[in-house]
Amino acid sequence: SDDGYRLWQRYELLKDPQKLQQYRQNISGVLIQGTSPTLTVTRQELDMALSGLLGQNVKNQSEITANALVLGTPENSPLIKSLNVTSKLAKLGTEGYLIETVAVKGQKATVIAANSDVGVLYGTFQFIKLLQTNQDITRLSISSTPKIHRRILNHWDNLNRTVERGYAGFSIWDWHKLPDYIDQRYIDYARANASIGINGTVLTNVNANALILTPAYLVKVKALADTFRPYGLKVYLTARFSAPVEIGGLKTADPLDEQVKAWWKNKADEIYTYVPDFGGFLVKANSEGQPGPQNYGRNHADGANMLADAVADKGGIVMWRAFVYDNKVPDDRAKQAFTEFKPLDGKFRKNVLVQVKNGPIDFQPREPFHPLFGAMPQTPLMMEFQITQEYLGQATNLVYQAPLYKETLDADTFVKGAGSTVAKVVDGSLHQYNLTGMAGVANIGNDRNWTGHLFGQANWYCFGRLAWDHTLTSEKIADEWLRMTFTNETAFLNPINKMMLQSRETLVNYMTPLGLHHIMGYDHHYGPGPWIKDKKRADWTSVYYHKASPEGIGFDRTATGSNALAQYAPGVQKLYGKAETCPEPFLLWFHHVKWDFKVKSGRTVWDEICHRYYSGAAMVGEMRKTWDATQSYVDAERFNHVKMLLLIQEKEARWWRDACVLYFQTFAQRPIPAGLEKPT
Ligand code: GCU
């Protein structure tokens, strides 16, 4: 059976006879000097990949021969040290690598070199990818360094193995059988992450349970950390702010209280006895009812700094989330994070990152970039993307998210003039941050294919690739993933790549066109619910966000409304400030317009909304046909899996279309434009 378990690491015999011949000729043996755990797993991975892809075992050797593959660092390999690559390596940092065709003692060889063993591992995965994607390897000269330091998955996994916003089964962490039982999945998880350069994982939900910090669990955390370490994957935990009270027996969790500080310091020291390279804490505080420093009249910096001090001497960091809101604050929810955090710029310790969601509301199909990006020059801001598709049709909708991530990263904050992109904020180049990071809320569970929807794997994959290098195009990343996951046949690649690239815009059209947002079903966020109102908080209802009335639709975030736009730099304000010139994808995000307002197409906004819902739903039908035409390229199990899901998605897109158009029509009181009215 082919259930997708192997992800993009399938290592099946290559089909192209010429390439196969080239690879067999150019890889006569493998020479690795060094025996560290990382180099050991590197060798294992190569053995597995080469025997699978080339259909023959490639011997390990200790002497150089023609066409050998030579791996290592100048430190552990005298051979690499003797080569002329040291000056190039000097520019690659600890995790970068180079892959070069060189002459060694008069013999042609391929070298994979780095400054650290984990760099060698990353280079090896890149080399394996060259084979998987049928690239020419006869004259290689490749070098690569990650643009962002901390490339981290956030698992919203609870200790009872449920996963908040998880749609792919239960948590892969089997706390019950840990620490003695090391599931092969943990190793395969680490391999997959290392193959795309992910170097950290937060094991537990941001809505944290303090028990993870107790010895009974720390011994299990240690077992996972030990398993992941050879793959360069560091473990982090979420810290429940009230833990000193809940598990420490203290009366308070006030971050300025000496006993509380001492408790966290001891706790951190204790964690480091289990996990000597523990990465640090991720914290959700004073948001959605979670405890935090504000419970004691302190601010976010007080809370973050107290935890930062506890881990500083061991090299740990604190990722303090900026996703905060509270309905006791009557203002537009989109403004609250900026309001609370902007005044704290410069007040955080050096080992604190403030982790900011890509947009100011909550992982919608489309949001403008978060106004904090660019506004905190003295505080490293970490990007938080959501890989799991909470608001994006969950595990039944095929949505390739690289275009969404790229749209945010490429957005211009204008804070230091045109070209001050969000990517430059996040990679530290705009404000010279000394610490940089990108987090992705994982879509991983214990489903056989890991992500529920096979194409969800592409979102895990593209998150890792963009965290490593945000300049890669969505198309290039999709191409790599498709070749490794399915086939190198262009007759498959061309239409399916195009389908992936269009899938996010298609989803926006059938869910939330023109800047509409948060009109999903209440609480579960699956399916349409634009009619939701009367809940205990206004900002959990749809009517709060779309503001449809007999006269018009949209959220006025200009000076005549909530003025959230004022949180952005003047360049951004100018771009979005007037309904007449505001880019259409954000029209109803920033403006309330009359139903007869004319958009670029010449249609009224009402007609345009209808067109978007109808064309979005129709596009899913096209996706289904595109997929159906690829049957001969894909094994039956995976083909049928995607086929059935696309049928569900098509139904759901129509559900969205009909629900939203009919609901908004009750206000617009206008007919559905001619030609659209016959639902398909
Ligand atoms: C969303 C999501 C919650 C999650 C929260 C967060 O609101 O629905 O489940 O806890 O984001 O990011 O903290």
Task: Summarize the structure in words.
Homodimer. The protein is an alpha/beta fold and 680 residues long. The chain has three domains: 17-144, Chitobiase, domain 2; 150-479, TIM Barrel; 510-668, Alpha-d-glucuronidase, C-terminal Domain. 37% of the residues lie in helices and 11% in strands. The chain has helices at 17-26, 37-54, 78-82, 86-90, 117-132, 184-195, 215-228, 243-246, 258-274, 300-312, 336-341, 402-410, 422-426, 456-468, 474-485, 490-511, 543-546, 570-576, 587-590, 605-628, 636-668, and strands at 29-32, 59-60, 68-72, 97-104, 107-114, 141-144, 150-154, 200-202, 234-238, 280-283, 317-321, 352-357, 381-386, 437-441, 552-553, 593-594. Helix 2 packs parallel to helix 5 and helix 9 crosses helix 10 (300-312). The longest helix has 33 residues, at 636-668. The chain is globular. The model has no long low-confidence stretch (mean pLDDT 97). The structure holds alpha-D-glucopyranuronic acid.
